[in-house]
TrEMBL record:
SUPFAM superfamilies assigned: Pentapeptide repeat-like, TPR-like
Classification via Pfam families: Pentapeptide, TPR_12
Record's keyword terms, sorted: Repeat
Protein name in UniProt: Tetratricopeptide repeat protein
Domain of life from the UniProt record: Bacteria
Organism: Oxynema aestuarii AP17
Entry annotated with the keyword Repeat: yes
Transcription regulation keyword on record: no
Amino acid sequence: MSVEEGDRLLKAGIERYQNNEFEAALDAWEQAGEIYQKVGDRAREGAAVGNCGAVYQALGRLHEAIAAYERHRAIADEIADRTGHLNALFNLSNTHAALGDFERAIACQQQRLAIARQLGDRRLECSVLSELQRHYTTSGNPSQARACQRDRAYIARELFDLSPNRDFQNFCTELGLDLRRDFAGANLSGLDLDDADFANANLQGTCLSRCSLQLANFCGADLSDADLVDTLAINANFNRANLQRAHLRRADLRTNLSGANLQQACLEGANLTAAYLQGANLSEANLSGASLKNADLKGSNLTGANLTAVDLTRAELNEATVSKTRFVAAIGLSPEVENQLRDRGAIVESERPESE
């Protein structure tokens, strides 16, 4: 009886487990565990016991799995095996969750979180927060789940800023984060997000100021209350995106905004030259000082919008709703077009009032 014999059985158990021969794997690992115990190799004994727990779990014998994982944890604690302790807690958490005992599942992950923070291991912390977020979501605790999501997004940005990797989308994938789901309210300012896929993403309140968003896809995304000040979004796709109350001052939006909801958005000084805004909702939006040269606003809703000092040279305004829209000192409007706009309910003034 030797460590080598135990190792042979441990390896055999792995092969049988991978072939779904669970009973045979269990037999091999139990024998390996007994050998390691007799020769005094507690680390290997703990690993074998933990493997037995995995078999019990695969067989649906969850209470036996918990007993095995608890034994693994006890051995790991006895020999100060931190990795074994973390693994045992992870397995215990998942097994308790499978039994619907989310209180214990969460408690196990919280212990892992404390260890990760004690070690200063931010990647591990991010991984544990992902597990906690999942358990909180499944157990009906959305506020706790959102707190975990916010912490994960914060850590991801912190780690990215310290990383030589310049592909944020790829970096997030490595951390198990989804750009479309996990960054609502996060700080993504100044990042290069060209070509990123944010289709149908939840980016409510997200800070994207000074980002490069060229060719990025925001089709159907929720960007309400988001900060996109000074962003470069040439040829991005904002079709049907929700940009209600978004901050878009000085943003370069020479792009597709058809059907977008820009109600009450701030677009002061934005570059919307040749932008495609068919059917967009710009009601009560502030477009003062923006460039809409050659923009297509056909069928858009400009009700109550502020277009002070806007360049509308060759802009298409047919079928646009302009009730109470303020065209003050607008550039590029002929007297004939100004009269047509007045007839449609717009407020057209050739010069700014002195107070402005």
